[in-house]
Amino acid sequence: EVQLVESGGGLVKPGGSLRLSCAASGFTFSSYSMNWVRQAPGKGLEWVSSISSSSSYIYYADSVKGRFTISRDNAKNSLYLQMNSLRAEDTAVYYCAREGWFGELLIYGMDVWGQGTTVTVSS
Amino acid sequence: SSELTQDPAVSVALGQTVRITCQGDSLRSYYASWYQQKPGQAPVLVIYGKNNRPSGIPDRFSGSSSGNTASLTITGAQAEDEADYYCNSRDSSGNHPCVFGGGTKLTVL
Fold it and tell me: Which residues of A touch B86 (CB under 8 A)?
């Protein structure tokens, strides 16, 4: 079964740090680009960061650039998000999602999602 | 970065047809994908590309596109289709890999 399982969420004070992990199984992890997507309470989906299959290409949303670092370990089938200098507005459910390969570059989509891990930034 | 715009809320009578739209410059160049999200659950991909459904998605879900607008159509809406729907595509600005729409809350009456 294709599966993504996030962990590492929790309560942290403003200015603190947290590291999220995403364990992949059931597919060849090293062949896929991966993403972190978050959802603040009562709000919509927000793309946070992406990393290509070999870590050659990394992207961040402007809202997290310079504070968050995405990485992966293909030997461990794992994706990570190091979050530093956390702010109240980073409070959200963080999802790990696989970028699907649909056969052409005109199509973009995330075809596998984890269940999410909750990050709460509060004093 | 580019933006995708969705109506915040749409309603449909049980068994009727509803169209949810998504507008943005990126859609002139790239196809939209659509996700369904029910309360407390992760998003699920329901449509990708021109009009493709992942395995397990009912055929009452379909997608289309014209100009800068993509549409998700549910033909014969069921009670279980009540959910939030998000569109998503590559970001044509090139600054980021992708962009999400703000989401549409679908109510089935």
Answer: 44-45
Q: Does B29 touch chain A (CB under 8 A)?
A: yes
- Computed on alpha carbons and rounded to an integer, the radius of gyration of chain B in Å comes to 13
Beta strand A117-121 with A10-12: parallel, antiparallel or unpaired? parallel
Phi, psi dihedrals of residue B51, rounded to the nearest 5°: -175, 70
What are the chain B neighbours of A42 within 8 Å (beta carbons)? none
Q: For strands B18-23 and B5-6, give the pairing.
A: antiparallel
Cα–Cα distance, B8 to B103 (Å, whole number): 6
B63 touches chain A (CB under 8 A): no
Whether A45 and B86 lie within 8 Å, measured CB to CB: yes
Give residue-wise pLDDT tens across range B1-55: 569 999 999 999 999 999 999 999 999 999 999 999 999 999 999 999 989 999 9
